[in-house]
Each structure stands twice: as structure tokens, then as C-alpha cells.
């Protein structure tokens, strides 16, 4: 281990705060939202109240106990954008994390196996996963999701399939650089089985790049979900999800309604950005 | 070099064979029946059977695969380079791909030229003095640009530059509808315009491509800048550079070597992103009304047009594999440490 | 490397900025008699029997390039912003006049003379023979010509054609009498004969030009017509066609009704409706179709642009499958009906450009009277009905969770998602476990028409192409074994079947009307469909474009339009 000091920049702190907030909202968001994010109201496409009136409105809500205004306005279905933006955190994180956990575990495991045990079979397997990487990501996801049904599970499975090769490649490269290290020889000499060595010694040491990749791919997963929604293959409405909110709100920009897409858009950007910053931080301080 | 090439080509052949099988059967696993669109007005049993037969879907799946590979009454088979006829338009899938693919390639090539043209100098600038304001700004920008949904920026750009300022063309595709397109030779309108000697059309096409290219380049520049910057910083700190410096080799020469070393992972990244974008540009195509391969594939998927989906996935994947190969070769040519 | 990239970068920046300064003068359209028509897609194929024929965007290509034997006259009494047709009155198109011999069930058509096609050929009886022979060959991917002929009871165009290749040759049911006269025989009296002839599915081909582009494997020129051009005698001729992008037609100078006033129409594919909106708004196109109701409303506020509309045959209804419990229970269907937020849908789904549909026939269609009374209304009423059926809490209905997946066509998400969400909200309040399930159009079609297993859906796509309430019965409500064609809710009522069997061959106008009206009374009582709203068919256009006429296929005939000089 290096004795290099961990440097934390302002940007990193910003990233941590956002990430923390996002995780907090994913867990407790449903207790904060003033409206049911899936039930329509009678006010459709109404803009948010001007920011200057927010203090008095906040006073009304918390002190005078009046019903909450639509802080971020309402969308074309009359759904409260604020409640949806908050409620969407959980949806998006579940999709992004599940997809990444599945693909990372699968990818890392296969990466270790394919990197450590090298024979014609593993080589062929590796090439097949390469092939998977050459598949047009978007189109494949679209095929899987649009036709197998627009459910969370299908979206997660499609993404896992597409992201597995990335983790596999990264891990395998790392494994290749590890196999000839002294400590591997040492454990081999001490009579440990090959499989034990692969899991016990290689695996933990080859995790680094995947960890960095994880935080980046989380962001990509959110963006891909958004893109899928845009071509009609995202989660089903009225599930609160940023991508589908941006996608359905995007068309209304030209009518002057900026709020249905801008608020979830900013939320998406911030979140993906924050995860990227965290990834960057890990990368910076990870002992290579 | 040749040995490497042959090995890689053989490998690609193996991969493509597998690809063909995978795509064919994957599509047929989907829980949907493409026959319905032909009986839209008359869903009687007889009409259904008639349509099923005309699509060749009444045969066993093995027979269908044989037909797809070796040819049947509807096509000559993949062996002869025939992907069959689209079930939506009745046109040869190869013809349709030939029409739509160059459009996308043109769009993303321009976007990549533009993105690389911006990112590499910016990345270098950031890396020139690590930790400085320029470096920090570059890094924040690259993290930010890389985490944006491109379609919302596309729509925003249209709104700002076309509707609000009126200085950009509308999302009308690649040319004004009133302009007569040059004779199609390559399918890429800029090249066709040059071949036809019509520089006015070339300018117009570039003009219409400005916003989509800008949008794509903005999103792409994020990861590219990051990659250039980090690799250069790393390269400049590498032992052999320190050694070269210490032994008094001119700083120009040192910088050139460091740049060459750091550029090769960037090439890999651009290659991967390029492969991704052939299918991934679909959102931009949709927003700017550009009929490229992405649009074509989405339409085919939504219409359950099996021959077209097969054709598109096969084509894009093969191109991506080819790009990976080219990237590997370039990699070796640029990076002095690698020998083929 | 760096140097080269910097150069490219500089060059590009230079180019872009020089464009910014030089090209920023916006082009204005509709000079030179050309107009630009913005559409979701340009025609995908031009073959009435081809794979793309059921796509509305393809049909609009067909009806502008080909003409029919006869068509409805334009309604001269009610002139709104869009004129309609007079569904009581037919006019000759390619046929100058026609007679019906009741005893022999034979129609005689006298063709116009000197009608010249785009290719320069004269219309003769051979073209009519070719048209029907082609339809009967059922060689296309979707035999629509055959189907509409069978709807019209043309002799020999029956189901045997599909199963028996020997029955596919045209006999003397369509017969050439002389160069300009043809006879068509029916197998039974049928009021739908003339209405069917006016549809896009039976339009007359220029047989000489069509045969010229045939081949041994493709004797009926399907490839040519799917992909290259459509030989016909219509008001326009194809100038160029780039699928998925652009479709350009130019006036047929020899058109027998006079050369069209709009000389050239450029169909431009703009897939996003918001893009069609802004292009219109910036005056860079002349006509746009298929915006959302709100975009149309907004568009009408801009100078120099108008939005015209008509309540034609587009409507929204709730589809409840009789084969999926609990929808086989009339009381459940009533409880569902009670929850529908009609007012919300009209106001927020259609921005007041629709009205509640209190009928099961599009209000413009002749052939029957239909009044759908809303006897049940409100969440409380719905709960009351549910209680009387033994469902006291939402949990009791959970066994039917899969039946309450409310489907709609995902391509229409812009318009349908808010409506579906509102219905979901209200139904949930009453205790129904509703979830939304948007699916792509093709899949929707498969489940609706072929599998017929779609339990619950909102549908805004059904418009009977033959303008008659009786045809709608045959299409949607007759049982499959009673000649029902697309009975997607699996509705079956022997009384309805019996009445339709009588009405179908009825020769007496008044009796037929009474029989069909009686059918609709049963349909309304049974809530065969739950009608929700009739919405307007609308176009956005520059102010100087006039003469819009609505046709049942909702496709503009550019021949009707004119353009004032500015």
C-alpha cells in the first residue's frame, strides 16, 4: 500500500454531498413528497411558482399548514413534477445499481476465470463476450425491452447483458498483470488449489478498475434508461423515472413548458456527474 | 503484421458466424407475431395463413434458418450477401442499409472529427500544467459533458439556435426540402455533393449538420478530454520520459513521444465510442429528423421486421468488429512500445 | 498529430462561423407553387395489396396518385373550416356514369374517355379488369383489394380465393363490354358496394404501365409498386421518392378534372411532433399533420398560420375483452364506465378539441342511429356496483390483476399517456388494480386482431374505412362465425348476428336503417365498447392555403387545395 495522502478537492466534496443526498432520497424520498407521484391532478401543465414567492409559500406550508403548491409545476398529465423528481431517485438507482451489480459480479467472476485459466475454451468464451461488446448497445437494449415488455426487470437484464463484457475485459486485463506476481507463486508453492488462488488472491486484487468503472457505468445506465424512454422503450408510465420524465417533457419545451423536463434533467445531470466525480476520486486514490 | 492480421480476420469470421446464429434465433424468441401487420384489415384465419405463408413463417425454424443462410424463394441467402426483403416496405434490406448507413456514418464521422479536434487540444492544455485552473476547468467540463443526456441538449439547441435566435437551420434533415439532393453515389450527402461538383450543396449540407454535429460532439468531448488529459499526465510522469528528460533530449522530442504514447488509448476510446455511436446516434437522428441507420433499426424493431432487424444488427456489429481491428492496428502504429 | 487536429479544428470552426453569418437568412417556402407537407413518415409503400398498405401515411400516397371509379360528392351544405363529404351522394370519377340491374345484381360502369395517366396511357376497360384481376390474384402480402371486394359482395371474391389457388383467376364477374364499358356482378345484394369502391383499396391501375414493370416472378408488379412508383390516373404523378425521408409528387397535367392548383407537393418526414410544430411555427413548411392537440392550439396563435379541423371519424374508446374475466360481467363493465373521467379527458387530454362520444358510430357516418347513455357515473357509483357484485375492497379484485393491464399504442404516448394515467388514477380510486401497459403498434395489432387476447385497452385507431354503420357492425361486433372480421373484444350476441344477417342483404334503405339501429341498441346495452371521446382531425397550414376536405381515411387530397398568392 502506498503512503500517499488522500487528497480531497472541493469538487470531490461536492460529489460526495450529491451522492449522499441521492442515496438519502432513494431511501426516504417517499416520506418527503407532497403528492402521490402517479395520481393525476386537475392542474395540467402548470408552471412552478416564481422563486421569489417560495419563502412565503414555504411559510404557508410549514407554519400555516396549507396544502403544498406544485413546487416544480405539473406535467402534461397533471402529475406533480416535484414529487416525481424525488420519487424517481429510487427507480433510477434501483435500475442502475441492479444492472451494475449483476454485470459487475458476473463480469468480474468471468474475468478472473478467463484471465487465470487460459485455454482454448476460455479464449473462445472471451471472444464471444467481445462479440457481445460489438452489438449495438442501444438497438439491442431496444429489442430486448420493447419486445419483451417494458418492465424494470427487462430493462435491468438488458443492461446487465450489455455491461458484463466491460467488467470482464477490465478484470481480465488486471488478472493478466497479476498472475506472474510473486505472491501468486508463493501460494501455489504452498499447495493451494488453483481455484482457491484465483478466488482468494487474484479476485480481491483485480477489483480496482471495476470499482472505478462501477461508478461511471451507474451514470451510463441512467442515461441509457433515459434514452430508451425517448424512443418508447423505457419504464411504463406513470412510474416516476427521470429518463421518461425528460423524454415526455422534451416535446413540451417548444411550447414553452420547460419545467417537466428541466428539473428531472438537472437531477439526472447532477447524479450522473456526482457518480462520475466519485469514480474519479476512487481512480485518483486507488493504489495501482 | 500479416500473421496478426490473418489471425484477427479468422477470429472475426468466427465471431460473425456466431453473431448470425445468435441474432437469428434471438429475434425469434421474442414474444410477438409479425404476421399481424399483414392482416390489418381482415383478421380471418385464411388471411392469416396466407400472410404467414408469404413470409415463409409457416416453415420450421430450422428450415427458416436454412433459407436465411442459403436462400429460399424470397432471397438468395446470406451466403450470397442477400439479407432478404423488408417486411414493411418490400425492399431489399441490403439496399435500405446502403441508403441509411452512410447517413449515420457521415453524421458521426463529422461529430468525431469535431469532438477530437476540440478535445485533444483542450486535454493537452489541461495536462500541460496539472492542478492549474485550466486543468481543473477542463476536468469539470469533461465530467459534466460526459454525463449529459444528448437528446435534451439537442432539443435545447434547436430551441435556442433555431427558434429563439433564428441563426441555425430547422430540424428538417440533411438539406432544405426545396433543394434537390445530388445524385446518390456514396449516400453521404457531403461527399456526393463534392463528387457532383456542387459546393453550394456541400455548404448547405454542412450547415444543416451543424447542430446535430455540435450536440454529439459536446457529449463525446467529455470522455475524450478526460482520456487525453489523464494519459498525458501519466505519460509525462512515466520513467522513460523522466529518463529522456534527464538525458537531455530536446523537450519538443519528449513532448512528441509523450503525446504519441498518450494518444493510443485515446484512439481505442474513440474507436469504441464510434462503434457505439453507429447505433447510439439514433436519438440525435430522431431529434434532427435525419433518416439514418439508427432510425431505420428502431422502426424495424417496432414493426417486427425480422429481415431488417437481422440485417441491421449484423451490419452494425460487423462494422464495430472491423473498427476494433483497425483500432488495434492504429494502436500499434502510434505507440512505439507495441510491435505487431 | 496535434498539428493536424488543430488545423482541422480551425478549418471547421471557420466553416461553421462563415455559415452562421452567410446562411442565417431563413428561406421562405411556398414560392414556385411547391408546398411542403410535414408528416410523421412518408409513404412506406404504394401498393394497396402490399405490406405497408395499412399504414395511413402510405394510403395518402395512394389516394393522390390513383383515382377511384366513383367517390362521394363534397358536401356543399355545411361549409366549415374543413369541408366534409356528402355520404348520401356518389359522383363519377373515372366512371362517367353507372347503372345497377337489380334483377341480375349487375353494375355497369361507363368510363370517361380521354383520361390520360401519368405515363401517357388512356384509361380503358382493360385497366378495370386488370385492377380486379390483380386483387383476386391475392399475390400481395396483404390482400386488401380482395378483402374490400368481398365486403362489397363482388361475385367470386370469397374466402375460397385464399384457400384455393384455383379460384384466384378473374372470371366473368368483371367483364369488358367495350373499350369504355365494364360490368361487375355481385353475389348478393349489398349496400356496401359503392362505398367500398371509393376506398383506397380499390383504385384503378394504369395496366399498360404496370405490366411494363412486371417480371416473371412478379407478374403483378408488386416490387415496382412497393418501391418505385404507382401507375395510375390520379391528379398527381410521382416525381421522386426516398423512403424514410422525402416523397415528392407533381401535378398531372392531363388530369381529367383539370390540372391541380398546387403544382408540386414535397412530403417531408419529421418524426417528432414537436419538430413539426416548430418548423410550421417558423414558417418553413406549409401544412403539418399529426401534432398533439396542445401543439395545434398553440400553433393557431402564430401569425400567418391557421389550424383547421373537423370531427370526422377519429375517436377514443375503452376496449374490454369479453373473454377475459371480469369483463364478461356486465356490472363490472358498468362500474368501469362509471369511473371514466370524461371531462378531464376532453379538457386536459384533448384541450377541448374533442367531445364526449355518446354513440358507437362516428357521428358523421350514415346507416344507423346510436345513442350511448351514460347511466352510471362517479367513483361512488362504481364502488356501489362493485359492492353489489361482492367486491368490497381493492384486494378482492387483485385476482384479476392481469386483466386490468391497460394497454395502448406506445407510438401514441404523447397523447394517450396522460389520458391513460387519468383513467388509471380514477379507476384506482374505485379499487381497480389498474396498471398501464403501452406496447408498440405492431404488437398491439397482433394481440388485438390475431390473438384477440388483449384484455383491456384504450384505442384511438379504429375508423371503419367503408363509411357505413353496418360495415362497422360487420367489422367489429358480429361474431366470428357470423362473418365478423375484426371483433377484437370477442363480443358475441346471437341477436346482433341475426339482425346483421338480415341487414346485410337488405335492399330496402329504411328497413336496413332500422335493423342496424336495433343492433346498436344491443351494443349500447351490453357496452360492447365503452365510447369516450370523438376528437377532431386537424391540420396546421399557412393562412393562404384553402380548400381542405376531410375524407374517411384522413388523408389530404392535394387536388382539393388552393393557394392564394400572397
Description of the structure:
By secondary structure, chain A is mostly helical. In chain A, 70% of the residues lie in helices and 0% in strands. Chain A has eleven helices and no strands. The longest helix of chain A is centred in the middle third of the chain and has 36 residues, at 81-116. Chain B is mainly α. Chain B has two domains: 35-82, no CATH class; 93-334, MetI-like fold, CATH 1.10.3720.10. Chain B is built from 13 helices and no strands. In chain B, helix 10 (251-280) packs antiparallel against helix 13. The termini of chain B are close together. The mean pLDDT of chain B is 83. With 566 residues, chain C is of the alpha+beta class. Chain C folds into two domains: 38-267 and 543-563, Periplasmic binding protein-like II (D-Maltodextrin-Binding Protein, domain 2), CATH 3.40.190.10; 312-536, Dipeptide-binding Protein, domain 3 (Roll), CATH 3.10.105.10. Chain C has 19 helices and 21 strands. Chain C has helices spanning 2-22, 56-65, 125-136, 144-151, 160-163, 193-197, 207-212, 222-227, 273-281, 293-299, 330-339, 342-349, 379-388, 394-397, 413-430, 441-451, 469-477, 494-504, 509-526; strands at 34-39, 70-79, 83-92, 95-101, 106-111, 174-178, 181-185, 236-242, 246-251, 264-269, 287-289, 305-310, 315-320, 354-356, 405-409, 435-439, 456-459, 530-535, 537-542, 545-546, 562-563. In chain C, the strands form five sheets. A seven-stranded mixed β-sheet of chain C has the order 8-9-10-1-11-19-12, sandwiched between helices. In chain C, helix 3 packs across helix 4 (144-151), helix 13 (379-388) crosses helix 15 and helix 17 (469-477) packs across helix 18. Chain C is globular, with a radius of gyration of 26 Å. The model of chain C is unreliable at 1-6 and 20-30 (pLDDT under 50). Chains in contact: A-B, A-C, B-C. Chains B and C meet through helix 2, helix 4, helix 6, helix 8 and helix 10 of B and helix 1, helix 4, helix 8, strand 10 and helix 9 of C.
Amino acid at each position: 500500500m502506498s503512503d500517499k495522502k488522500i487528497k480531497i478537492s472541493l469538487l470531490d466534496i461536492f460529489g460526495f454531498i450529491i451522492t449522499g443526498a441521492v442515496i438519502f432520497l432513494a431511501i426516504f424520498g417517499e416520506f418527503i413528497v407532497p403528492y402521490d407521484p402517479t395520481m393525476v391532478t386537475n392542474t395540467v401543465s402548470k408552471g412552478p411558482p416564481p422563486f421569489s414567492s417560495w419563502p412565503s409559500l414555504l411559510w404557508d406550508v410549514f407554519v400555516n399548514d396549507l396544502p403544498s403548491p406544485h413546487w416544480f409545476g405539473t406535467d402534461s398529465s397533471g402529475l406533480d413534477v416535484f414529487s416525481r423528481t424525488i420519487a424517481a431517485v429510487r427507480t433510477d438507482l434501483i435500475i442502475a445499481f441492479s444492472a451494475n451489480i449483476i454485470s459487475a459480479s458476473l463480469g468480474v467472476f468471468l474475468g478472473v476465470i478467463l484471465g487465470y485459466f487460459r485455454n482454448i475454451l476460455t479464449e473462445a468464451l472471451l471472444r464471444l463476450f467481445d462479440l457481445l461488446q460489438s452489438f449495438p448497445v442501444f438497438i439491442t437494449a431496444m429489442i430486448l425491452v420493447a419486445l419483451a415488455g417494458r418492465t424494470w426487470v427487462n430493462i435491468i437484464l438488458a443492461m446487465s447483458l450489455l455491461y458484463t463484457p466491460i467488467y470482464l475485459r477490465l478484470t481480465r486485463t488486471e488478472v493478466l498483470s497479476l498472475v506472474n506476481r510473486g505472491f501468486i507463486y508463493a501460494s501455489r508453492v504452498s499447495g493451494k488449489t488453483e481455484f482457491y488462488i484465483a478466488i482468494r488472491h487474484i479476485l480481491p486484487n483485480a477489483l480496482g478498475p471495476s470499482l472505478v468503472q462501477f461508478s461511471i457505468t451507474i451514470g451510463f445506465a441512467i442515461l441509457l434508461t433515459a434514452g430508451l424512454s425517448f424512443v418508447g422503450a423505457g419504464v411504463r408510465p406513470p412510474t416516476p423515472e427521470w429518463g421518461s420524465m425528460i423524454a415526455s417533457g422534451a416535446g413540451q419545451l417548444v411550447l414553452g413548458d420547460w419545467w417537466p423536463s428541466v428539473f428531472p434533467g438537472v437531477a439526472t445531470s447532477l447524479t450522473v456527474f456526482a457518480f462520475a466525480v466519485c469514480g474519479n476520486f476512487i481512480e485518483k486514490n486507488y493504489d495501482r | 503484421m500479416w500473421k496478426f492480421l490473418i489471425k484477427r480476420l479468422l477470429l472475426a469470421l468466427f465471431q460473425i458466424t456466431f453473431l448470425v446464429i445468435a441474432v437469428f434465433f434471438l429475434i425469434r424468441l421474442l414474444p410477438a407475431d409479425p404476421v399481424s401487420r399483414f392482416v390489418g384489415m381482415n383478421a380471418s384465419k385464411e388471411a392469416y395463413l396466407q400472410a404467414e405463408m408469404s413470409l415463409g413463417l409457416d416453415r420450421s425454424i430450422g428450415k427458416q434458418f436454412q433459407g436465411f443462410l442459403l436462400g429460399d424463394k424470397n432471397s438468395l441467402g446470406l451466403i450470397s450477401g442477400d439479407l432478404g426483403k423488408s417486411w414493411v416496405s418490400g425492399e431489399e434490406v441490403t439496399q435500405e442499409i446502403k441508403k441509411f448507413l452512410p447517413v449515420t456514418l457521415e453524421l458521426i464521422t463529422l461529430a468525431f472529427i469535431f469532438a477530437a479536434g476540440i478535445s485533444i487540444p483542450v486535454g493537452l492544455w489541461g495536462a500541460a500544467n496539472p492542478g492549474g485552473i485550466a486543468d481543473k476547468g477542463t476536468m469539470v467540463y469533461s465530467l459534466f459533458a460526459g454525463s449529459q443526456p444528448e437528446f435534451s441538449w439537442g432539443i435545447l439547441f434547436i430551441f435556442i439556435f433555431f427558434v429563439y435566435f433564428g441563426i441555425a437551420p430547422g430540424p428538417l434533415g440533411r438539406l432544405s426540402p426545396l433543394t434537390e439532393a445530388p445524385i446518390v453515389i456514396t449516400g453521404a450527402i457531403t461527399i456526393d455533393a463534392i463528387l457532383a461538383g456542387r459546393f453550394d450543396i456541400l455548404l448547405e449540407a454542412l450547415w444543416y449538420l451543424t447542430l446535430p454535429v455540435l450536440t454529439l460532439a459536446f457529449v463525446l468531448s467529455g470522455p475524450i478530454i478526460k482520456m487525453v488529459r489523464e494519459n498525458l499526465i501519466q505519460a509525462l510522469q512515466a520513467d522513460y520520459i523522466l529518463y529522456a528528460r534527464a538525458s537531455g533530449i530536446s523537450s519538443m522530442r519528449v513532448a512528441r513521444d509523450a503525446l504519441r504514447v498518450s494518444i493510443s488509448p485515446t484512439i481505442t476510446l474513440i474507436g469504441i465510442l464510434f462503434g457505439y455511436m453507429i447505433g447510439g446516434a439514433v436519438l440525435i437522428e430522431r431529434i434532427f429528423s435525419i433518416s439514418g441507420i439508427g432510425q431505420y433499426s428502431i422502426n424495424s424493431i417496432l414493426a417486427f421486421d425480422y429481415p431488417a432487424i437481422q440485417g441491421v444488427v449484423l451490419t452494425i456489429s460487423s462494422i464495430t468488429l472491423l473498427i476494433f481491428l483497425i483500432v488495434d492496428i492504429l494502436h500499434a502504429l502510434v505507440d512505439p512500445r507495441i510491435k505487431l | 498529430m496535434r498539428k493536424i487536429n488543430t488545423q482541422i479544428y480551425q478549418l471547421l470552426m471557420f466553416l461553421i462561423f462563415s455559415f452562421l453569418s452567410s446562411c442565417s437568412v431563413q428561406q421562405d417556402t411556398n414560392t414556385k407553387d411547391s408546398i411542403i407537407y410535414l408528416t410523421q413518415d412518408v409513404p412506406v409503400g404504394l401498393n394497396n395489396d402490399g405490406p405497408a398498405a395499412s399504414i395511413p401515411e402510405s394510403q395518402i400516397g395512394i389516394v393522390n396518385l390513383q383515382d377511384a371509379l366513383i367517390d362521394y360528392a363534397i358536401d356543399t351544405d355545411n361549409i366549415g373550416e374543413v369541408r366534409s363529404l356528402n355520404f348520401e351522394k356518389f359522383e363519377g370519377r373515372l366512371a362517367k356514369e353507372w347503372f345497377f340491374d337489380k334483377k341480375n345484381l349487375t353494375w355497369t360502369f361507363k368510363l370517361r374517355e380521354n383520361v390520360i395517366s401519368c405515363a401517357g396511357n388512356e384509361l380503358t376497360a382493360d385497366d378495370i379488369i386488370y385492377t380486379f384481376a390483380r386483387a383476386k390474384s391475392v399475390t400481395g402480402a396483404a390482400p386488401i383489394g380482395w378483402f374490400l371486394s368481398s365486403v362489397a359482395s363482388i361475385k367470386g371474391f370469397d374466402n375460397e380465393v385464399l384457400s384455393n389457388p384455383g379460384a384466384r383467376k378473374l372470371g366473368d364477374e368483371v367483364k369488358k363490354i367495350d373499350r369504355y364499358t365494364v360490368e361487375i356482378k355481385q353475389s348478393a345484394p349489398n349496400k356496401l358496394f359503392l362505398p367500398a369502391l371509393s376506398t383506397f383499396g380499390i383504385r384503378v391501375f394504369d395496366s399498360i404501365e404496370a405490366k411494363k414493370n412486371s417480371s416473371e416472378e412478379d407478374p403483378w408488379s408488386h416490387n415496382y409498386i412497393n418501391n418505385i412508383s404507382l401507375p395510375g390516373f390520379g391528379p398527381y404523378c410521382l416525381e421522386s421518392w426516398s423512403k424514410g425521408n422525402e416523397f415528392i409528387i407533381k401535378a398531372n397535367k392531363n388530369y381529367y378534372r383539370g390540372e391541380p392548383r398546387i403544382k408540386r407537393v414535397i412530403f417531408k418526414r419529421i418524426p417528432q411532433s414537436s419538430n413539426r410544430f416548430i418548423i410550421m411555427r417558423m414558417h418553413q413548411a406549409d401544412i403539418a399533420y399529426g401534432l398533439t392537440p396542445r401543439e395545434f392550439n398553440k400553433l393557431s396563435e402564430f401569425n400567418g398560420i391557421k389550424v383547421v379541423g373537423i370531427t370526422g371519424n377519429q375517436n377514443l374508446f375503452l376496449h374490454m375483452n369479453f373473454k377475459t374475466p371480469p369483463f364478461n360481467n356486465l356490472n363490472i363493465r358498468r362500474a368501469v364506465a362509471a369511473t371514466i373521467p370524461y371531462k378531464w379527458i376532453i379538457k386536459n387530454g384533448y384541450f377541448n378539441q374533442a367531445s364526449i362520444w355518446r354513440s358507437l358510430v362516428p357521428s358523421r357516418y350514415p346507416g344507423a342511429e346510436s345513442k350511448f347513455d351514460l347511466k352510471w357515473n362517479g367513483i361512488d357509483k362504481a364502488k356501489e356496483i362493485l359492492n353489489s357484485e361482492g367486491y368490497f375492497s381493492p384486494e378482492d379484485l387483485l385476482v384479476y390483476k392481469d386483466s386490468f393491464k391497460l394497454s395502448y399504442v406506445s407510438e401514441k404516448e404523447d397523447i394517450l399517456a396522460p389520458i391513460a394515467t387519468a383513467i388509471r388514477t380514477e379507476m384506482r380510486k374505485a379499487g381497480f388494480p389498474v396498471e398501464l401497459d403501452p406496447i408498440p403498434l405492431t404488437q398491439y395489432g397482433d394481440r388485438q386482431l390475431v390473438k384477440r387476447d388483449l384484455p383491456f385497452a384504450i384505442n384511438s385507431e379504429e375508423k371503419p374505412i367503408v363509411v357505413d354503420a353496418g360495415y362497422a357492425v360487420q367489422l367489429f361486433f358480429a361474431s366470428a362465425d357470423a362473418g365478423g372480421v375484426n371483433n377484437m373484444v370477442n363480443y358475441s350476441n346471437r341477436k346482433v348476428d341475426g339482425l346483421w344477417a338480415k341487414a346485410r342483404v337488405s335492399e330496402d334503405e329504411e328497413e336496413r336503417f332500422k335493423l342496424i339501429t336495433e343492433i346498436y341498441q344491443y351494443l349500447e346495452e351490453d357496452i360492447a365498447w365503452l365510447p369516450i371521446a370523438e376528437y377532431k382531425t386537424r391540420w396546421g397550414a399557412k393562412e393562404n392555403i384553402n380548400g381542405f376536405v376531410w375524407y374517411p381515411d384522413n388523408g389530404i387530397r392535394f387536388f382539393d387545395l388552393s393557394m392564394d398568392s400572397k
